[in-house]
Design a protein that fits this description.
single chain, 12 strands, eight-stranded mixed β-sheet, Glutamine Phosphoribosylpyrophosphate, subunit 1, domain 1, four-stranded antiparallel β-sheet, 309 residues, alpha+beta
Length: 309
């Protein structure tokens, strides 16, 4: 009898100071995303398909800072970043500062699979999406009343972060970036990350989520990673690739690599964030140095999903 290969999926909904009254929504959100991706994997779907499906669910859930419900930039607009990577051939695609797209991770996938490009930004990314049959939408379809209120608060206070979500001693800045990492039955690993960025950000600001090696990385020989947290700090330590390199040298231990990468982030930049990790065998690792991180995972070796916030 042919031995069945392990299958695994891990998702996150952002590492930050998730308020008590939002914790249940975050937990439900990551579980919904996990189920959608897992149903696909269990039925023989690919890791790339599972990652896209899981992230689509969170992009469509205004609980998270991705797709609908994303934070507004300084001009009161939504600009989205996303990336996806497949570990067999190291193919990757990403979009940055893209507008009028509800599911930027889907555009990133098309870039990966239908072009030789890795990263498209702004109007070029939107035009590419239209050329490949991905529907666009108006800003109103993505902006929520919650984020309008927070943006007005930030504008009135003259701060980069709305007063209601300001960083307090021992607390992290707002987050809500989403991500997923999957291992399919063919042994392929894929990773993806999607975000609306930081509240009241400068127009055109790009964080880690669209950058391969920073927010996203996948290599079938080692594993896959999705990062979340302070984008500038994560970029400076090349977080996702750093986790991969740590797994390469520590005996493929995803949990230890995740913890070591977060320690590196803190030590070298003072930054805050989190990572989700799979190794090539489907082992799961997570770590964060923020008060909370919404995450959930399931593997073919456990009975059911595990979630925490």
């Amino acid at each position: 009898m042919k031995r069945q290969r392990p299958v695994s999926l891990v998702v996150h909904g952002g590492a930050w100071n998730i308020p008590d009254d939002e914790a249940d929504a975050h937990r439900r959100g990551v579980l919904n995303a996990l189920k959608a991706g897992w149903d696909l994997l269990r039925d023989g779907g690919t890791a790339v398909e599972a990652v896209e499906r899981s992230i689509n669910v969170m992009e469509n859930d205004e609980t998270f800072n991705a797709g609908r419900g994303s934070v507004l930039n300084a001009a009161g607009e939504i600009e989205l970043d996303a990336s996806i990577m497949e570990g067999k051939g190291l193919r990757a695609g990403g979009v940055a500062a893209v507008q009028n797209i509800a599911n930027p991770i889907s555009v990133a996938r098309v870039i990966m699979e239908k072009s030789d490009i890795v990263l498209l930004v702004g109007l070029g990314a939107t035009r590419f999406a239209k050329e490949h049959g991905i529907a666009t939408c108006g800003q109103d379809a993505l902006i929520t009343g919650r984020e309008i209120s927070r943006w007005r608060e930030a504008q009135a206070s003259g701060t980069a972060t709305p007063v209601s979500r300001k960083k307090a001693p021992g607390r992290s800045a707002p987050g809500g970036t989403v991500g997923a990492v999957a291992l399919d039955a063919d042994g392929t690993i894929a990773s993806g990350t999607s975000t609306g960025g930081t509240p009241n950000k400068h127009q055109g600001r790009v964080g880690d989520s669209s950058l391969i090696g920073c927010g996203t990385y996948a290599d079938n020989e080692i594993g896959g990673v999705s990062s979340t947290g302070g984008g500038e700090a994560i970029i400076r330590v090349v977080m996702a690739k750093s986790v991969i390199d740590m797994m390469r040298s520590n005996g493929d231990d995803p949990e230890q690599a995740a913890k070591d990468a977060i320690a590196l982030l803190k030590k070298r930049t003072g930054g805050e964030g989190g990572v989700i990790v799979l190794n090539a065998s489907g082992g799961v690792g997570t770590a964060f140095n923020t008060p909370r991180m919404a995450r959930a995972f399931i593997t073919s070796s456990i009975k059911g999903p595990i979630a925490a916030v």
